[in-house]
Amino acid sequence: MSTTSVLSPTEFESRLERYLFERSEEWRAVRVGEKEVSEQAEIVRRYADLFSREQLDALREVEERESGDARELLYRLRKTCESGLVSAQLAEREDELENRLLAARVTFKGEEMPLRNAQAKLAVLPAYDDREELGAIQAEVSAGFNPDRLDLLRATEELAAEYSGIADAVERNEEEKDISLRDLSRALERASDASSAGYDKLRETWFTRLLGDHPDVPSSYHTAWMRRLSPLESTYTKDRATEICLQTLEALGFDLNAQPNIKLDLDDRPQKAPRACVIASDPPKVVHLITRAQGGLHDYQAFLHEAGHALHYAGCDPGLPYIFRRIARDHALTEIYSYIVEAISREPEWHELYFGLSPEQARENAEATTFLEALLFRRYEAKLRFELDFWSRFNGDGGDPDLYEKLLTDAAGVRYRKEGYLSDMDAGFYSADYLRAWIRSAQLRDHLVREIGDDWWRNAQTGELLRDLFREGTKPTSEEIAARIGFDPLDTKPLLHEVGA
Ligand SMILES: [Zn+2]
Q1: Where do the H-state alpha helices sit in 48-167?
Q2: pLDDT score recorded for residue 487
Q3: Is the pTM of this model over 0.70?
């Protein structure tokens, strides 16, 4: 007999709100270097009553009696309870693997360093041969963790199958995202094919400009270096990143300094993780935007990307139920807004306006950003194809790492090693969410150009239009946004323009 008490959906929602607030704030404190030890497990223990089989069944029961928005809200509560149940059981194992990864060391040119630092260092090592050497060393150490990664993946998968009642991973994710992953993949594969000729030309120019002498198919160890546009570092300086990004947003009518609900943390502290991020602790009231500039164009792109997320969460209607301010079925919606703001960095005039470049130089640098966008898009399209194959076979032969190497290398023209197939896999087909955002943000840009004009990226009307979308919080799906701006969800024509096809 169980003595677990079951909360009503309203009680569950308000307790979940407190739980997620505490976890977000804890994560923020560790992330920005205010705390050295993460105490998430302690919070999980205190809120253990939220995540039980009984609670899950009770939520499902009420959900089945409801319809419309009320049903959607309960669906999201139930799925949150479900994933909480899974992670409560695996939290210790996840922490253990995470801590061993943090403790892993590599030796490069006689110097010992943490694995994570070695991976970060790949973005800033100026010599091709050094990146090649360090890349191989860190890949070797990382691959050593593959058996543990696979065990954890299998355990997660078994629990998710059990609690959701859907055994097949592809089917389970399609149900939650409410789309066909295979239709999405087919539409994207056609787009990727259509972009091949344009990409080959971009590759020919930019591999040489960014890498110097290089083999036909350079290894993936050089992508972080290329993403920073490192050889153009003197233009895209670390010092001006914050100022220029804030000005860029102001042109759209968003004054981040005047928005007290967006908590900016832009300081440079040694313990602060270098990756920019947004932590929406309590949207729209408390949204953290955290960045740490490292130098290079990537700083600017990362700031604009995260600002898109922050403005979305901070701009939602406070009158919406908590679930529709904080929880979505997936990440495909909020990534539209990060992508559209980041897309400003691909406008040639933006480079001209803020960096004092000639129109010709600005066009050239913007072309580099198109090259990077095309590389990333093609890589993700191939990743989705691989993941669909992998998860379809997971309960059979377990999937084929060779296929990872083949599909990604062919698509990107960059060599991906098969041993990377697990460390490169995000849970829950996140790749599909990014790809939907790729399609949608390109449609949105097309819509903005038609409605507002070529200067959409520095026009306050764009801000107004976005504000209306932000107000809806996390409630709409990515596909609903397509309908609002008059596109078929799988129309990739605008995307082809973005990737230089
Ligand atoms: Zn994002």
Answers
A1: 53-65, 68-103, 115-121, 128-143, 146-164
A2: 98
A3: yes
